[in-house]
Design brief:
CATH superfamily of the largest domain: PK beta-barrel domain-like
Structural class: mainly beta
Number of helices: 5
Radius of gyration: 23 Å
Strand order of the largest sheet: 9-8-21-20-24-23-22-26
Length: about 425
């Protein structure tokens, strides 16, 4: 396997790096030879084997006609692929995702591989082309691999100096007891390895499919964001969770211990549902705004989180979005963060993008590790309370920050977080303060 853009082991040119870091995101020219007789399909995989998560991150997955021996630049585009190329879903989105490693994390190796397969690549039943996650596609590969080609390129993002200043604080805290429902604003909360104590511990489930119901599929579940949820008493670490009170759009309410709750929820949602306090393997559905297709995805085992236990958004990011689209109301409740961080005057742009891979200290006890930026979906555009339906919200984020708003984080050390607590962003060396 070869490329006109780089040789094996050499850096990948910036033109082929990710759009999220301001480059073109153009897939490189690629070629291979000696495809053996009997090949039914060629499977192309591009992985970042040095991803921060410790697990390879798939940047591109494509099935290619065995008569195709080379790809022009841009042929792995998710919207306009080259002839004989069937572009499948990557770890995040569809089509080629250019390198975008964490700043200061050193050079990442991006491994391109082509596999000559004795059988065609198939799409799992019930999943549309380009929407099946890589693990599902790879699980369908049947029969021997007849041959393989491999090409490795590198890409590194050096740290630019970060402005040294103080003043970042916890502006407010939010907990969402029931997934996809409005939550409760807090002055203080306990943080555990599972996030804010009591966050997203309940979910509405469709017993007909076993899937979690929610606002991410508004076509099936309209009006979900008009439901409210709050605990009847503050959750305490080490004790059982108290009951959660759910208020319907018409103002009627019931608690999770009330025998008639499922009936009330079913009537309000227009189909039979139940309230669950935990599933070993939860699945949910998203309505993708760009393609208008519904995809099914799995939540982290034993949780009702999308990707991580905590979600952070800065006021700098919200302010930037307001400047870019003045008619839009970029209020925190559209993005459902757990922690809103006030950044000091003069801080501009999507500052938390640069925090991926770093640790954050909150107050004297809590330490978080930022794992990835947060991709947004149609849910951010939906009406709730006095907020109108507005597709411009998601469109603005997509045009200016690759549809990323805020960051996900995991908990390194738990403790108590209070409104006004100081925020410190640490460097790759946790003793180095950079924010």
């Amino acid at each position: 396997m070869t490329s006109e853009a780089f040789t094996d082991g050499d850096p990948i040119p910036a033109a082929h790096a990710g759009k999220i870091i301001g480059d073109r995101g153009l897939s490189p020219q690629l070629a291979w030879s000696a495809v053996p007789e009997g090949t039914a399909a060629v499977l192309l995989v591009m992985e970042d084997v040095d991803a921060v998560s410790g697990q390879p991150f798939i940047h591109c997955l494509a099935a290619i006609d065995p008569q195709v021996y080379s790809l022009d630049p841009g042929a792995l585009s998710g919207t306009r692929p080259g002839a004989g190329v069937q572009v499948l879903r990557s770890s995040m989105g569809r089509g080629y995702l250019g390198p975008a490693p964490v700043k200061g994390h050193g050079p990442h190796r991006y491994v391109f591989q082509v596999f000559a397969l004795a059988s065609k690549v198939t799409i799992p039943d019930g999943v549309t082309e380009g929407k099946a996650r890589p693990s599902l596609i790879l699980a369908t590969v049947d029969g021997p691999v007849l041959a393989r080609g491999r090409l490795t390129g590198t890409y590194e993002r050096l740290n630019r100096p970060m402005t040294m200043f103080s003043g970042a604080q916890v502006a407010t805290l939010w907990r969402y007891p029931v997934k996809s429902m409005q939550g409760e604003e807090l002055n203080a909360a306990d943080v555990t390895t599972a996030g804010l104590r009591g966050d997203r511990k309940f979910a509405v489930v469709d017993p007909a499919t076993g899937k979690v119901a929610g606002a991410k599929n508004p076509r099936k579940w309209p009006g979900f964001l008009y439901f409210r949820s709050a605990y009847v008493a503050p959750p305490v670490v080490g004790a059982d969770l108290p009951a959660v009170r759910i208020t319907m759009p018409d103002g009627v309410s019931a608690t999770s211990t009330d025998a008639g709750l499922a009936k009330l929820l079913s009537a309000a949602l227009g189909r039979e549902v139940t309230l669950s306090a935990g599933l070993a393997a939860a699945r949910a559905e998203d309505l993708e705004d760009a393609s208008d297709e519904v995809i099914t995805w799995e939540m982290p085992s034993g949780t009702f989180f999308d990707s991580a236990p905590l979600h952070l958004v800065t006021t700098a990011t919200l302010d930037k979005l307001r400047v870019l689209y003045p008619a839009g109301r970029f209020e925190p409740r559209r993005f459902r963060p757990n922690i809103i961080i006030t950044t000091p005057p003069g801080t501009e742009g999507f500052v938390e993008n640069d925090w991926v891979g770093r640790e954050i200290a909150i107050g004297a006890q809590v330490r978080l590790r930022v794992t990835m930026t947060t991709g947004r979906c149609v849910m951010t555009t939906l009406p709730q309370g006095d907020l109108p339906h507005d597709r411009g919200i998601l469109r603005t984020a997509a045009q200016h920050n690759d549809a990323q708003v805020g960051v996900y984080a995991e908990v390194v050390a738990g403790g108590r977080v209070t409104r006004g607590d100081a925020i410190t962003v640490l460097g790759p060396d946790p003793t180095e303060q950079v924010f």
